[in-house]
Amino acid sequence: MAAPGDLAGLGSLGAAEALSVAEALSLPAEAYGNDPNVEMVWAMKAYQHAEVYFNLISSVDPPLLKLTRLDELIYTTFRKEFPDFRIDVIDPEDLKSPAAKEKWRPFCMQFEHQVEDFNYGTLLRLDSSKEYSEENTIFSTRIQFFAIEIARNREGCNNVIYNRAKDAAK
C-alpha cells in the first residue's frame, strides 16, 4: 500500500519526543497549535487505520464485515439522509464543499456519544475499486468513513478489492 504522503518522519521520533507528543494530545487543541510532531502522529494513526482496513477488505468478504456495533444504525441513517450519495467513486465536493459540510454536520453529530472518536481524522478512498494512494485518498471524519465503507461493503463496491486479492493469492 502506497503511503498517502511522506510519513517516514515518525520513525525519527525518540522516546522523549513521543511522550511529549502524547502529552500534547491530551491538551486542548488551542494549547499546541500546529506542532509538526503532533500532526505527524495524527497522520501516522490515520495511515495505520487505513492500512488495517484495506488489509481487512482484502482478506474478508466485505458483505460479512461488521465495522462497529452500530453498523445497521449508521447504514440506515446514512442512506436515509444521503439516499443518492455515490459511494463507488466519491466526488470530493460531496464531502468538502460548504453545502456538503452543512449537510454532513448534523449526520456526524448524531453519533457524537455513540461512536468512539466519531470525529477523528480518517483516510477515505475516493474510488472504491482502488488502493489508498495520494491521488485516491481524502481526509474525512471517522463517522463519514464508517458510513461510506459500511455502505460500500453492503452494496458490493468493495468486492473488487477482495476478489482481486483472492485471485492474486491463487
TrEMBL record:
It holds the Pfam family PBDC1. GO terms for cellular component: cytoplasm. InterPro entries: PBDC1-like_dom_sf, PBDC1_metazoa/fungi, Polysacc_synth_dom. Residues 38-162 form the Polysaccharide biosynthesis domain. This is Polysaccharide biosynthesis domain-containing protein.
